[in-house]
């Protein structure tokens, strides 16, 4: 199965860069650090600051695909069905999702299910590339077993995402917002557990079969880089699901339930670095005039532009209806990633002759037709938009973390207000910050400011807790009908909101409406049976004639 390979064609950049960037060596170091000192690292580098790292790893990885598809006329024409029509479809759904939460939730669901498959597919492709650059033809059996291991690894995550979460989730990460939610099948635990067990066993069998088949007739040194990528896949997806489902190794912080979102961002950065490792090599090898630093800079700006345009255009003060933190950021992430998945699926395939000439052999420039890049008027617009997005991300990350989160303990209304206004300037006004400002003003008795801030928060993204705070404000001014209406809005968003039910019952008691007060209190007691105060109130209402 193995054949001699030229030494200079075995690596893209060399052993150390390839093992660190392409095979997951850097992520292995991050994983070890998180396993050894996860809480301490999260305290020094909280999740609120990680977008600064994503800005310079994740954003250019989107730009790399955009450059591959849109920079040259012949590529734009070749991939028109994906670069034009599929892209228009994705963003048409995005626009619909801005105004219809159900459409946005479906878009988010597709993104969350497709994303681990995209990562898995990249790992599978890199494994094959590393084998073939070493002169190893895996053969149908080994290739199929290897592909099956990545498939079952993804299926573990997909099943975990679709499980009933009433008793907890096994998924590595569960992204949601106040507006958009993952649409689940809600597979019951008694069914999900055996499904995960069978899938996990199939994953283990296929991976072992792939390792055994690949090791026949090939040196361990030649197979090891591909095995490293398979191990990377395991610690990204397979092991977190298995550990959470079985309760094993949950003391390892990257596998614990409360560490999922934080670790996911590091996985996303690892995937992005891996992607840039391949694409930057391809760009340099296929067109020698490319230099790595200018290429990465262009990728940074192009990626920033594709993120920045929908975020700026659909901010609440322009065409949008939801703020950055109540769903817009998540919906934009869904659209940008789905477009990225579609384009990536079209262009990065080893069966493509042009791709194979560069990635599977020594650097052979790709033949290209003469064709100008994107129109001259468009390039400055894209670069400017990319710079604007980078500035907005840096300012926004700092203000969300320092200006908002850290100004709440102890409360600093002045700093919080300045942060909220700066976020508004960059199109990222925060519904949460406006809520916090409204509550602080309510506590201090400044009802006019409280009303303005709470109403602004609701305009940025309806939220049950904000409606409850506004209802409390109306009670202070004896606006009983307005208060009831506010609590009804809260219950329309979250029917099981105990605080809204309890306050609604109080207002009905004030009006002498015993039937409605009792009904609200009964429901509140059902939801919070440990609340003795609610039980006493219910008993008191029931004793009244």
Order of helices and strands: HHHHHHHHHHHHHHHHHHHHHHH
Q: Say how many strands there are.
A: 0
Percent of residues in helices comes to over 70%
When the domains are counted, the total is: 2
Strand content: under 5%
Q: What is the approximate shape?
A: globular
Question: What is the straight-line distance between the termini?
Answer: 89 Å
Q: Given the structure, what is the number of helices?
A: 23
Q: Strand count, sense and closure of the main sheet?
A: none
Q: Let me know the average pLDDT.
A: 87
Gyration radius, in Å: 27 Å
Which structural category do the helix and sheet elements fall into? mainly alpha
Low-confidence sequence ranges: 1-7, 360-365
Please provide a written account of the structure:
The chain has 545 residues and is an all-alpha fold. The protein folds into 2 domains: 382 residues, no CATH class; 50 residues, no CATH class. The longest helix has 33 residues. The radius of gyration is 27 Å and the shape is globular.
